[in-house]
Specification:
- The longest helix has 12 residues, at 37-48.
- The termini are close together.
- By secondary structure, the protein is mainly alpha-helical.
- Helix 1 (2-11) crosses helix 2.
- The chain has helices at residues 2-11, 19-25, 27-30, 37-48, 52-55.
- It is 53% helix and 0% strand.
- 0% of the residues are buried.
Length: 70
Amino acid sequence: GFWVKVGQYLSSRADVMPKPWIEELQVLQDTMPFEKFDYVEEMVRLEFGKEVDDLFSSIEPTPIASTSIA
């Protein structure tokens, strides 16, 4: 999380970062790996104290996209 955001920020700072670094860090703008659904279920359970099925009427375990959250 934190380091991804740092990389995303730095990739937008062409005024202070070398071009090769910018090119490498820009990958973080468009490509984020997804978490396995087991991990997501566990985090929901820990954060909300309930099972995913108790909180949502339906949920798709296969991700269609991923992102980083600040």
